[in-house]
Amino acid sequence: MKHSELIEYKLRGEKITCLTAYDASFAKIIDGAGTDIVLVGDSLGMVIQGAENTLAVTMQQMIHHTEIVAKPCQQALVIADMPFKSYENAGLALDNAKSLIAAGANMVKLEGGSEHQDVFRLLNSNNINVCGHLGLQPQLVVDSSGYKIQGKDDIGAQKILDDALLLESLGVSVIVLECIPRELAKNVSQSLRIPTIGIGAGSACDGQVLVSYDMLGITSGRLPRFARNFMVGKGSVRLAIESFNEEVKAGTYPSIDETY
Ligand code: KIV
Q: How remote is the CA of residue 211 from the centroid of ligand 1, in Å?
């Protein structure tokens, strides 16, 4: 997928598939299976480094993982997460975003809304493609009790919608919606020209993303209800990933039981 195709997918109603990768082997399989987007997520703090949250992930680590993921990707759009404290002000954000693009990313992702509007504005005026991330923002979570559904009350829901509209107006290309009620995600998705990519946000989003280690059954412990194990009944990682792609495109993942 090319950056310019994001809007075309939304216009023709084709769902966008996205999975995380942190190394070349997984990136090659995910890209080879035809997944539209490969996300070098700062979830690497948990799934690769064994930390409780994403907060200790550094720019140096993100650059390293972006380089090794981007190299084998032949068709997927590569998005790299900007880690905690890497976009505290607009100038710092621009320098760090440029480093991730130089490492091979086609786009950078950062969490938050209006509080970072100067960052979104500067990245846009420097032609950096940006993915937003609203709803549950893992960089605001310090322990596992913080992983909660967001936007359940009217004020929270309105803030997410307002932030989404603001990000679109500031040139953001696509927005990840994490752990919000499916009706809110539907409303946000229908209110935007740019696509949304949901994780725990229901099937009305314009695409779906999962942490690859979750959907392959590698992650231990209790997983959120949306994290379906696509390895069940499949003989290989490639088949599990193809199944995720097929079910997202068909609109059968996530099911109603996998949403809030
Ligand atoms: O870091 C990550 O894997 C993410 C996804 C949860 C969207 O941001």
A: 6
